[in-house]
Fold:
Amino acid sequence: MEIPYTTEIRKDTGLYNAKVGIWLFLASEVMLFGALFSSYILLRVGSQDGYWPHGWLTVWLGTLNTIVLITSSITTVMAWASLKMKNFGSFKLYHAITLCCAVTFLCIKSYEYHDKFIHNEVTLKDGRIADGHLIKRTADSVTIEGRFVKDRKELFNLSTPFFGHPKQEEIEIKTADIATMSNYGPAHHDYNALYFTLTGLHALHVIGGACVIFYLWAFGAKMWKEDPERFTNRVEISGLFWHFVDLVWIFLFPVLYLL
Amino acid sequence: MSDQTHSEHHDHIASHVRRYILVFVALIIGTILTVWASYIHFPSREINIAVALVIASCKAFLVAGFFMHLVSEKKMIYSILGFTFFFFIGLMALTIWSFGDFPPFTVTH
Structure:
């Protein structure tokens, strides 16, 4: 079956069909992320004074990831411009860089997730709280690299320097002395729940977008030879989605890492 | 396509490419500014939030306007985005409206 208006312009919309389709889809995506940002605002405004975390994430990693996504955005648009200039070789090069950026972004994000899952808050039976990264766990004890705090509130404003937390001491705690122990996963705090939901959904978008770009990059040569205009339009549509993913991150970065 | 038309088309895209590079540089500068501004202790945290969101909005405009070509799109796309903007603002307005509208017996801090 022939798909209509893949390259020719419809008179009523002034556009080819896929472009209208992707913008309608992006409109629904705005509302999806909008709902999650709305949850963020409500939970943050409703949190107890002094108990909303600051500095729980490593700023330089977030900055690096922002730069990686911005770089992938320009290589995406350059890939499209290369096709417009009938240069398939440049298209391949630019989209190879886009894919490398996507993989780099996901690797950094995975590292950050891992960092949160090994970060633990340990409440002792004497009321003290130890906070740090798990190094070793045996049946009798746990060893963390971190610090003791008297008041839990101390854990919420870390005023992180740009290059992360300074090295901390090794603390060995007997299992018998532990009242509760929880890692910084989604269940730890409203902030963590939002952080994992927002960045997890965003990462799924990165994976989805990267899969489409990979498909066009790896298997696009045949369509480029048969119908270059249609292929260029496909690249434009995938690019619009990719830029949207970048756009969402532009807001996620300051909201989650800096404010 | 004649040679002259092809050359004009090529020049047109090349001018776009120069613009993309400028936007890329502006986005990198915007990112550095966002991080730098977050380390400044303004009189209140609300100012920090406002500054970060203003910079983020400028960056978003650059991405949407130039990388996504919204500065020169068709009316149909603007209509779709107009509706989206309306509902997004409505969603945020409802969120802000609900701050002071807790159900009875809600424990607030």
Summary: The longest strand of chain A covers residues 129-137. Helices of chain A lie at 17-45, 59-84, 88-118, 190-219, 221-226, 228-258. Chain A has a mean pLDDT of 93.
